[in-house]
Amino acid sequence: GRLEAVTQQMGYHPQYLDSFLKTQHYLMHMDGPLPFDCRHYIAIMAAARHQCRYLVNLHVLQFLRAGGDPQWLRGLDFIPPKLRNLNEINKILAHRPWLITKEHIEKLLKISEWSWSLAELVHAVVLLAHCHALASFVFGCGCEQDEGPGGRGSLKPLSPGNQCFCEATAGNGCSQELLRINRKRSLDSCMELDSLWERMQRIHVETEGREETRLLQQDREEGEGQGAEVGVQDGTEHHSDPSVGLSPLADTDGEVTGATNLACYMQDPDFGYQDFARRDEDQTQVFRVQDYSWEDHGFSLVNRLYSDIGHLLDEKFRMVDGLQSSAMAKRQGCEPSVFKRGIWNYIHCMFGIRYDDYDYAEVNQLLERMLKVYIKTVTCYPEKTNPEMFDRFWKQFKHSEKVHVNLLILEARMQAELLYALQAITQYMI
């Protein structure tokens, strides 16, 4: 089923999958500061920033199941001002998280009829970062492409009844307990999505071909350039930003169909990723992990304001760091830990986060140009990922290794967003 696609892909790394599902379940279904319908609507807002129909479809259904007002699905103009006020930091966190300031936090927390509490805001921030990063994984593994008629992703989910989703990692000793957890915490009923998808198919199929042709042409032009190289002196990039000019599909019949018209869940749709190197240096400084890190600062703050989520996030970060990638690293001529750190630090570099103890010249030595183009696209504008990019980059990688790269992207991106948001909250509190 389509909604099984994410867990099928993550199933190549069962320990990580279990950690991810625990976090997802806690964020969406366990006790916390935010009402359940609001959690799913925030997820819709986050996924819409990257035009991720897969996630929007999922949370539209869960929003209604949680008793959400169907009128809210008409768009941001139909939701309470308190929720609508979250749009600004959703937009900034999704595309340029270095622009988050304590003033954004103060504006949401100021005393008024629509003010947020600190605990509510931390819950919301974690949800936003979680869904933005998950959208990268969805596009990176081809789950979004598989939503369309016939599918067009090269990273195909395993066929039901053909091979167990965790067989690639667990061999013949498939963990029945893991399968039970997967079914129990499955993202949603695939039959419900099938019903929703059929309603949207008529509109979707008319526009998908045009959009795919445009993306393929754009990627060819991009590949002919000389971009995507990390400057070994300052870690900045010289790569044109292709995230311009996307127009969401139109809802031609006016029916509230969730993901058909994603524009209704966004304001300022033209706001997108911009190379950190091109920022206004008078306003934004490089974020140095030595000054504010997850381990020393972010973890304790988020755990204090939203009980236990810090432990779940920390487990997830550690889990992806511990995944084995010896074959992948060997082909790149380095140790697994060196290869993984190169990918992680490259992603953080794109968001202006720097490690003083890291030699950024290693990035160009470890990562081939096409791998860097792929990582940057999936990280910064995942909606631009297309089949041709898969074909050009994936040749020497096993399927589990492809998933591993996308898990590194997911977690590195999520941590980057959290670092900026939590630092701004800390500055506000001080």
TrEMBL record:
<dbReference type="InterPro" id="IPR006730">
    <property type="entry name" value="Sestrin"/>
</dbReference>
<dbReference type="GO" id="GO:1904262">
    <property type="term" value="P:negative regulation of TORC1 signaling"/>
</dbReference>
<feature type="region of interest" description="Disordered">
    <location>
        <begin position="208"/>
        <end position="252"/>
    </location>
</feature>
<dbReference type="GO" id="GO:0005634">
    <property type="term" value="C:nucleus"/>
</dbReference>
<dbReference type="GO" id="GO:1990253">
    <property type="term" value="P:cellular response to leucine starvation"/>
</dbReference>
<dbReference type="GO" id="GO:0071233">
    <property type="term" value="P:cellular response to L-leucine"/>
</dbReference>
<dbReference type="GO" id="GO:0070728">
    <property type="term" value="F:L-leucine binding"/>
</dbReference>
<comment type="similarity">
    <text>Belongs to the sestrin family.</text>
</comment>
<dbReference type="Pfam" id="PF04636">
    <property type="entry name" value="PA26"/>
</dbReference>
<dbReference type="InterPro" id="IPR029032">
    <property type="entry name" value="AhpD-like"/>
</dbReference>
<feature type="compositionally biased region" description="Basic and acidic residues">
    <location>
        <begin position="208"/>
        <end position="220"/>
    </location>
</feature>
<dbReference type="GO" id="GO:1901031">
    <property type="term" value="P:regulation of response to reactive oxygen species"/>
</dbReference>
<keyword id="KW-0963">Cytoplasm</keyword>
<dbReference type="GO" id="GO:0016684">
    <property type="term" value="F:oxidoreductase activity, acting on peroxide as acceptor"/>
</dbReference>
<protein>
    <submittedName>
        <fullName>SESN3 protein</fullName>
    </submittedName>
</protein>
<dbReference type="GO" id="GO:0016239">
    <property type="term" value="P:positive regulation of macroautophagy"/>
</dbReference>
<keyword id="KW-0560">Oxidoreductase</keyword>
<dbReference type="GO" id="GO:0005737">
    <property type="term" value="C:cytoplasm"/>
</dbReference>
